[in-house]
Amino acid sequence: MIEMKNVSKWYGTFCVLNKCSTSVAKGEVVVVCGPSGSGKSTLIKCINGLEPFQEGSITFNDISVGDAKTNLSKLRSRIGMVFQNFELFPHISVIKNIMLGQEKVLGRTTEEAEKRGMELLHRVGLSEHAHKFPGQLSGGQQQRVAIARGLAMDPVAMLFDEPTSALDPEMINEVLDVMVELAKEGMTMMVVTHEMGFAKNVADRVIFMDEGRIEEDCTKEEFFSESRGERAQLFLSKILHH
Amino acid sequence: MFSDFDFDVVINAIPFLWEGMQLTFLLTFLAITGGLFLGVLLALSRLSHIKVLSFAAGSYVNFFRSMPLILVIFWFYFLVPFIVGRPVGGFYSVLVAFTLFEAAYYCEIMRAGIQSVRISQVQAGQAIGLSYSQNMRYIVLPQAFRNMTPILLTQAVILFQDTSLVYVVGLHDFLVNAEIVATRENRLIELFSTVAVVYFVLCLSFSLSIRKLQKRFSI
Ligand SMILES: Nc1ncnc2c1ncn2[C@@H]1O[C@H](COP(=O)(O)OP(=O)(O)OP(=O)(O)O)[C@@H](O)[C@H]1O
Ligand SMILES: [Mg+2]
To answer: How many structural domains does chain B have?
Structure first.
């Protein structure tokens, strides 16, 4: 579904992504981890064209993301994205956050969008908060709304960029639970996270990045066995001992 | 000397003063509306990646911001009839002058407002598939307006005071009408202190409500 071939990106002379190649098949759950600044966010944002890249190619269902002729808005509407800091729209209510894309991008009527929005809010356990503003919700609740906003577009894949790292520890699980459920339903997912429990539980593959390079790209069994590289091992021992 | 004060003159002049005040209000309101609209377009142009557009908008803003308002008013008083090809009357030429002048200031306010919206909010809008213009309209501009409301309102107060400059083209605003009564009745002190009090009360209460608003928003 997602094919990435030799993608490189520079900020000036600084190489953020260095010949990254990987792929995500339909229904696959891929976890991306690595030290801060290794380029994980950049990598995941390249997939839906939020970040441009200079070399290589990315295709999503055979549509080239880097091609200037590609209708990026249409492409993005089929890929849900969840950000580290939720990024709900603070000036409109929770339900409006979920309806906006449905109405303006998918052309659904207000009634349809609201119905679908309420279904999804119910699913993430927040239907009674529909008419509050994002600022009135806790971090965990906001992130669940953000997931619902992504799902409202009926995406064929979901991208997550450290969805739990801005949350207080007691809120992490309520968000992970929603993600685990999604994964088990067969959603194609690419998840940047350091939650190794989540990776062990539902990931099919794990990608380890360091200094803009994909250092490891293997099945979770391989990754959590002893066969992985030195740097990945070092990284893993650091985050697991926290 | 206060025993000489005759405030009946002021009371009798209220309808005439109110007529002038209506012009002041109307001019302020129309210039704010037009200036804001144009200001937003200018701000979007200034932030545009199209070099010609951002250069043109930048030049416009720098030009008007380095002109004294009174000069702009004079200038349009002679220029507008010349362009239109017939006399348009003081009101319309002044309205055009204020709108174009204010737009330069509103542009800078809105530019700061747009830049105050975090790039990640823009990305969130893009990520659900919004186009550039949809993203501006539904995500960026509403937040920019909200962040800039106090400064926009402060600018409105300044404009309200600046409309008193219309006397130079012979329009009868609040101040001019007060002056007419003052000289006719020879009651300068009464009339001009009334004018001062009215401006003071209006601007102060407006400023106070802005401060209240600011407090509400900063929570
Ligand atoms: N706009 C930019 N200009 C210059 N350098 C940038 C820019 N954005 C990111 N970088 C750099 O690119 C590198 C990769 O950033 P990225 O956000 O992808 O890392 P990350 O792996 O997601 O890190 P984190 O775990 O902290 O989120 C970092 O060193 C960062 O400083
Ligand atoms: Mg990151």
So the answer is: 1
ipTM of the complex: 0.92
**Tens of pLDDT along chain B (219 residues)?**
455 777 788 888 889 999 999 999 999 999 999 999 999 999 999 999 999 999 999 999 999 999 999 999 998 898 888 888 888 888 999 999 999 999 999 999 999 999 999 999 999 999 999 999 999 999 999 999 988 988 888 899 999 999 999 998 889 999 999 999 889 988 888 889 999 999 999 999 988 888 887 777 654
Tell me the pTM: 0.88
The residue segments making up the domain with residue B28 are 7-218
B1 domain residue, yes or no = no
For residue A63, the SS3 value is strand
In a domain, B2, yes or no: no
CATH number at residue B31: 1.10.3720.10
Let me know if residue B42 belongs to a domain. yes
Which residues 17-46 of chain A have a CB within 8 Å of chain B? Answer: 45
Cβ-based contacts of B128 with chain A (< 8 Å)? 76-77, 81, 100-101, 105, 149-150, 153
Give CA–CA dist B35/A183, Å, rounded.
52
DSSP A106: S
Cα gap A158→B91, rounded to integer Å? 58
